[in-house]
Specification:
There is one protein chain. By secondary structure, this protein is α+β, with helices and mostly antiparallel strands. It folds into two domains: 285 residues, FAD/NAD(P)-binding domain, CATH 3.50.50; 91 residues, D-Amino Acid Oxidase, Chain A, domain 2 (2-Layer Sandwich), CATH 3.30.9. The chain contains 15 helices and 23 strands. The protein has a seven-stranded mixed sheet, sandwiched between helices. Strand 21 and strand 22 form a beta hairpin. Helix 2 packs across helix 3 and helix 2 runs parallel beside helix 10. It is globular, with a radius of gyration of 22 Å. The structure holds flavin-adenine dinucleotide. The site of flavin-adenine dinucleotide (FAD) has 34 residues, from helix 2, strand 4 and helix 10.
Length: 410
């Protein structure tokens, strides 16, 4: 559970830590890192801009690369209990007809679990052993250096050995750091996220439909489905109910499960709107600070892997920081970046490639996409991501490499 405490209390508790770490943003990456560091005896200060975290958020399909992080935090069983297996993935035609269904769960099973979970439930799982946080607080000033000084929105100031900017895709903390230019892919699309209780005959089935100017997806979480309906941003101005009606007309062969999904979108008084743009920071590490998760590389939804990569990066950083002191911190962070950044960017490139295929208008394009999806195996489409999962990084070996590099030659 996240426990709200004051910033002053958090800074005071951290007083005797060998490394004083500030984590900005209590999202999946920031909390994964905080939980790991706490397990290792540190007391990172964790701040969050929002006033509380009661909202379930949206659905996350999580790939096996985060299993080891959950094991290390000691919450893997809770995770399985609060999530649902994503055993199969189906692709439908732009009219709604089922084109193919693949056993994605079985394909990934040799590497670990493929599960669907609500973001709020994941945060509860990650904080099973308790996690203090100061809500309603952001960073408004940063003086770089060996022990950077931070100014908070509360009017307080403090020095830390390391500031971790984990404040998401539209990170404000990133703007305070000298990390170079960010590259952004903006698809011009957006979509609403909501929930449906109609699980259908196969509750472990995730399904997607890429139509001519619209997208519909249904993803299992525990006891319900997360629903996503999207389209070109200007066409969503008609509102969720009218847009859902448009999708219904364009795709008459949807079946009861996805018809119920559209009903859920149409009747939700306040569905979450998600603009489909990503971001890639030029550098992740500057003196005294790092970018983590979406703040470093924020993803388009097309490969369903942003949270997985964010948690993997947090796990690598947390495990490597177990070996850190003020003397070796800079070398260790440089090594972390050299391993993790190419991994994350290769997954991001895969999601950008899929976006080029999917966010295209026109009936002819929709038909060509369907022909391609019929012919290509899921293994081929997600090949680079499956290779990343199969080839997990080793935090201890990476730390040893950084310490070898830092050691003076004999
Ligand atoms: C609708 C939707 C569906 C998705 N589906 C999937 C999926 O199926 N699989 C998958 O792997 N990924 C998915 N993703 C991507 C995934 O959610 C992100 O990659 C992941 O949440 C990144 O984690 P993060 O901790 O870096 O950022 P976030 O989870 O966004 O957390 C950032 C936190 O920082 C806080 N914050 C923001 N600004 C400040 C500030 N200035 N100061 C302090 N705190 C601040 C925010 O309130 C938030 O709590 C999805 C994303 C969305 C939006």
């Amino acid at each position: 559970m996240l426990t709200a405490i004051t910033l002053h209390e958090q800074i005071d508790t951290q007083r005797d830590d060998p490394l004083r770490i500030l984590i900005v943003g209590a999202g999946v990456a920031g909390i994964t890192l905080a939980a790991l560091l706490r397990k290792q005896g540190l007391h990172p200060v964790l701040i969050e801009r929002m006033a509380g975290m009661e909202h379930p958020g949206y659905m996350l399909a999580l790939m096996p690369m985060l299993d080891q992080a959950l094991e290390d935090i000691g919450v893997h069983d809770e995770y399985l209990a609060r999530s649902a297996p994503l055993a199969r993935y189906a692709f439908r035609s732009h009219r709604g007809r089922m084109l193919r269904s693949d056993d994605l769960g079985a394909l990934l099973a040799i590497h670990g679990d493929y599960q669907g979970i609500e973001r709020g439930a994941l945060i509860e799982v990650l904080t099973t052993n308790g996690c203090p946080v100061t809500f309603d607080t952001t960073v408004i000033g940063f003086n770089p250096g060996e022990r950077p000084e931070v100014m908070f929105s509360t009017g307080e100031g403090a020095s830390f050995d390391l500031v971790v900017a984990a404040d998401g895709i539209r990170s404000r903390t990133r703007d305070l750091l000298d990390v170079g230019d960010a590259s952004i892919v903006d698809t011009g699309w957006a979509g609403w996220v909501t929930w449906s209780d109609v699980l259908g005959d196969d509750p472990a089935l995730g399904e997607e439909l890429w139509g001519d100017g619209f997208f519909l997806g249904a993803y299992p979480v525990k006891d319900r489905l997360g629903i996503f309906v999207g389209g070109p941003a200007e066409e969503l101005e008609v509102g969720p109910a009218a847009f859902a009606a448009r999708v219904r007309d364009a795709a008459p062969e949807l079946g009861d499960r996805l018809q119920a999904a559209l009903d859920a979108v149409a009747t939700d008084p306040d569905p979450y709107l998600w603009p489909l743009a990503d971001v890639r920071a030029e550098r992740w590490v500057v003196p005294g600070a790092v970018l983590l998760g979406d703040a470093a590389s924020g993803f388009l939804p097309t490969a369903g892997i942003g949270a997985g990569m964010a948690m993997e990066s947090a796990w690598m950083l947390g495990r490597m920081l177990a070996h850190a002191d003020r003397g070796n911190l800079a070398a260790l962070l440089a090594e972390w970046e050299s391993v993790q950044k190419p991994r994350v960017e290769s997954a991001q490139s895969n999601s950008r490639m899929l976006a080029r295929l999917m966010f295209r208008r026109g009936k002819l394009i929709a038909r060509l996409r369907e022909t391609a999806m019929r012919m290509l195996s899921v293994k081929a489409v997600l090949g680079p991501i499956i290779r990343l999962i199969a080839d997990q990084p080793d935090p201890d070996a990476t730390w040893r490499r950084s310490s070898d590099r830092a050691a003076p030659a004999a």
